[in-house]
Amino acid sequence: MALFVRLLALALALALGPAATLAGPAKSPYQLVLQHSRLRGRQHGPNVCAVQKVIGTNRKYFTNCKQWYQRKICGKSTVISYECCPGYEKVPGEKGCPAALPLSNLYETLGVVGSTTTQLYTDRTDKLRPEMEGPGSFTIFAPSNEAWASLSAEVLDSLVSNVNIELLNALRYHMVNRRVLTDELKHGMTLTSMYQNSNIQIHHYPNGIVTVNCARLLKADHHATNGVVHLIDKVISTITNNIQQIIEIEDTFETLRAAVAASGLNTMLEGNGQYTLLAPTNEAFEKIPTETLNRILGDPEALRDLLNNHILKSAMCAEAIVAGLSVETLEGTTLEVGCSGDMLTINGKAIISNKDILATNGVIHYIDELLIPDSAKTLFELAAESDVSTAIDLFRQAGLGTHLSGSERLTLLAPLNSVFKDGTPPINAHTRNLLRNHIIKDQLASKYLYHGQTLETLGGKKLRVFVYRNSLCIENSCIAAHDKRGRYGTLFMMDRVLTPPMGTVMDVLKGDNRFSTLVAAIQSAGLTETLTREGVYTVFAPTNEAFRALPPKEQINLKTAKELANILKYHIGDEILVSGGIGALVRLKSLQGDKLEVSLKNNVVSVNKEPVAEPDIMATNGVVHVITSILQPPFNRPQERGDELADSALEIFKQASAFSRVRSSPAPVFLSCSPGLS
């Protein structure tokens, strides 16, 4: 029976895998970073941790893998030092830190972790030292000596002038009436302090940083006989106001205060939760053009989007930022938050003027520049920040500016600046009409476009959508960058000027003198109706010169209607393929049945390795690409015809040889493989 139980346990362990047998409780981010620091320090002996110190400062960090290789904190270079991991000490003559620190009471432990100033102030009160030395179970978040030294003289004077009230209360606020280790410090939790049961805010970030009221945990989990000590880098103070109350009392938020009231967000900002408000100052609002600011303030939806773009979904203390990271706002956009030395940056700009103003429901950072989301901008404003300024100037000169700054639901197809490197077209009736056909009468999103969809323009044209493996095109022009979706309009940045279709394929060919021979050939071959009716064709159209350049023998082959139709059908693909949809190589089936090899290299389109002279002449039932040679179907190419005959002869010879071997060979013998040889 005992054997059966052991076998059953082994079977379960194997079924569940090694994780089930070896995994203990999940480690917190702080513990994982500490573990990495131990691994980096182990060559120096037991219980040695690698620590990164920012050059020129006293700031130290346990290192994670990314920081270890980058050797930078907030863009500043670091040096690696090796110290005893928390809870251990050196022994003379021995390598590393083999000895565990002796356990003593909280008061004595303060001195061990480097918080002797906290000891000193504890001594000044009448009650606190006996409590720290007596029975019980407490947690103290002890400010480092440097943290006390950084307090202003005014604050220190107010504390030490009334030690049994102000100083005692301040120290008690750093204490919790139970033992709390780092694995219990969860992101967004609150602990009840020993000062009037006031809350202490805890944040435990994925990068291993732990903050206590936005003060960073420097050394954690120093056990004492009556509790635990965590060393922090700031003296923390009680939090009394919520975010909305701070907005109400700060003079620098006068415009923000009015905007919040108009948007109705004040209810959220005074309620429960943990938010980060990137609070624009009056100065930030003053930097915005008056017309733009008045438009947003007068538009409830745009205003709400603007304010939501300044609110992060969780509390983010400055101490948690040691490198760049992406954070999502309530509006749904992504901000790049980083740091450069002591300065926080947003989208690469050092616009935070005051940081870590704590509220009961989050944290506030003052910013001196508005973060206007795309969803609150006009098409003009979207384009001003994009690589389409030349196109926008053309729209303005053509008198279409009101469409781009108004409240019409539109999509603007704006060619990139690089499209106009050889100059811009003159503004005339043709150009105005062309530009009107770059404005779609609906606000679109590219992710909802589908192959074959038609879009109506302000100019009255119907434009088609073509979806290819690696590109999304509207007629001959393909989308070159992600959409920018504004308040009423969406901006598509396009890789070329769009040319709407002007008649059928036959209309295009008949209207161009270069194709008179081709038109006559199409009529002779009976293909006129095919290229006139509705359809989706890609026509590689040989010019008159291409026909004249044919060798006499191949001209003779075009004399019969059947041969002529066969060759012309080989020039017609059975789907629409514009140059932007080609990629490296596309095999396009022709109406003749064989496939055409269409490629794009160095911005030159080729078909069967023959360069296309002019691509993308759009028609209502297809697209025309101009070529200067006649494409021969595989069976019509003389060399290939000879090759086919040779291949056929070779195949017949192989089959005859195989048959001969079968007739002359003895009966088959079947062999079995020996073990290990199979």
UniProtKB/TrEMBL annotation:
It comes from the Eukaryota. Coiled coil: none annotated. One of its GO terms (cellular component) is extracellular matrix. Residues 103-236, 240-371, 375-498, 502-631 form the FAS1 domain. Pfam families: Fasciclin (PF02469). GO terms for biological process: cell adhesion; extracellular matrix organization. Its main location: secreted. It is found in: Secreted, Extracellular space, Extracellular matrix. One of its GO terms (molecular function) is cell adhesion molecule binding. The keyword Phosphoprotein applies. Residues 1-23 form the signal peptide. Residues 45-99 form the EMI domain. Keywords: Cell adhesion, Disulfide bond, Extracellular matrix, Gamma-carboxyglutamic acid, Phosphoprotein, Repeat, Secreted, Signal. Plays a role in cell adhesion. May play a role in cell-collagen interactions. Binds to type I, II, and IV collagens. This is Transforming growth factor-beta-induced protein ig-h3. It comes from Callithrix jacchus (White-tufted-ear marmoset). The lineage of its organism: Eukaryota, Metazoa, Chordata, Craniata, Vertebrata.
